[in-house]
Amino acid sequence: MIAPVNAGHARRNNILTLCAGAAIALLLWQAPGYIDAYKIRIINLIAINAILGLSLNLIYGMGGMFSLGHAGFMAIGAYVSAILIITPDQKQIMWILDPIAPWVRDMRAPFLASLLAAGIVSAIFGCLVSIPVLRLGGDYLGIATLGFSEIIRILITNLTPITNGPLGLKGIPPHASLLMSYGCLAVMLLCMTRLMRSNFGNVIRAVRDDEVAAKTMGIDTLKTRVLVFTLGCFGGGVGGALMGNLITTIDPKMFMITQTYSLLMIVVVGGLGSITGSVVGAVLVTTMLEWLRFVENPITIGSLNIPGIPGMRMVIFSVLLIAVIIFRREGIMGMREFSWGWLLRDGKRGGTQ
After folding, report:
1. Is-contact 229 63, C-beta < 8 A?
2. Contacts of 116 (CB under 8 A, 6+ apart)
3. Has residue 85 been placed in a domain?
4. Cystine design at 245: which of 176, 178, 186, 338 (Cβ 3.0–4.6 Å)?
5. What pTM does this model have?
6. Is residue 306 within a helix (H) or strand (E), and if so which, with residue range?
7. Quick check: is 151 in a domain?
8. Which residue from 286, 298, 352, 285 is spatially nearest to 324, judged by alpha carbons?
9. Better-scored residue on pLDDT, 137 or 257
10. HEC states along 126-177?
11. Rounded distance between C-alpha atoms, residue 234 and residue 238, angstroms
């Protein structure tokens, strides 16, 4: 009987997931007592990059929309959150090029509320942008979203009474702890998993795979794509807010096109359309980019002195990325997902997952 086996597997999987989550939470809680601050920062950055990778993968890998504007939505989220949690006295001192707008100075909210506001504001901008640009497709969509990202960056640079212009915001309270970042990642993973297993997830795949066929089935493809794009922008805003809180300082130069390229690396390396792949890609890309910093420093091998070359780690990483694309085009996970059934080899015992 297949149904009882599946029900048993489902209960077992839920228990294993809860146990794994509790174990990870305990490790993260104890980590600051055993790991130095640099490694804690990298572990934290992995979670934030995973959130950003998941949000871009929802748009690009699962929704089939080639977007290069994610850095713009990150910027919106980072500035919204920072403005809400910085105290009015800090803001008054920080704005020196132009007087701060009174309504910006007096805005204040708790950190969790600022995260939610960052996601909502980014989603609103994403919705407004997506309605006209999603009528385009392919490379034209990528160019249009790239243009929007640059527009946002230029607006942030010039709207000095609101954003403090090119000086950016400093002294942001560091609320992005390990538990906070990984808690947000857990919520993101849960929401993404439930979304893609729902009927709407099937609609998203149908629109991605064959938009014409989806239209003939009565699906409003534009509405579906706008909703998916908006949800992805919400995640981008939350990730940008966490990034700003981790670094404690933001400025317009942080959100250039190179930021989007880094997220594309995560999505492509992990696997387009794979939730698990985005997490795996975030781990690999974040750790590799940090580990490769040694090639930018002077290296001494015996009597040979090799001077450091700034930017060399990105060159090496780009070569590795090209190798991944050539030899494993679908990414590490492809479109597959991790499951307890796969790990425990349920299929070999005749069970179904």
Report:
1. yes
2. none
3. yes
4. 176
5. 0.89
6. strand 304-306
7. yes
8. 285
9. 257
10. HHHHHHHHCCCCHHHHHHHHHHHHHHHHHHHHHCHHHHCHHHCEECCCCCCC
11. 6
In the numeric block, which tokens belong to residue 87?
């105290």
pLDDT digits (tens, 9 = 90+) for 277-310: 899 999 988 988 888 777 777 766 666 676 767 7
What CA–CA distance (Å, rounded) separates 271 from 278?
Answer: 7
The one-letter amino acid code at 187 reads V
Q: Is residue 97 part of a domain?
A: yes
- pLDDT tens digit sequence for 303-337: 667 676 777 777 777 787 788 778 777 778 777 77
The answer to whether position 325 is within a domain reads no
Q: Which amino acid is at 73?
A: F
HSE value, Cβ hemisphere, 13 Å, CA-based, for 275: 17
- Please tell me the total count of domains within the chain: 1
Residue 9 makes CB contacts below 8 A (sequence gap 6+) with: 340, 341, 346, 351, 353
Amino acid at the residue 289:
L
Domain of 89? 49-254
What is the phi/psi pair of residue 19, to 5°? -65, -45
Q: Using CA of residue 310, residue 311, residue 313, residue 319, what is the dihedral sign?
A: negative
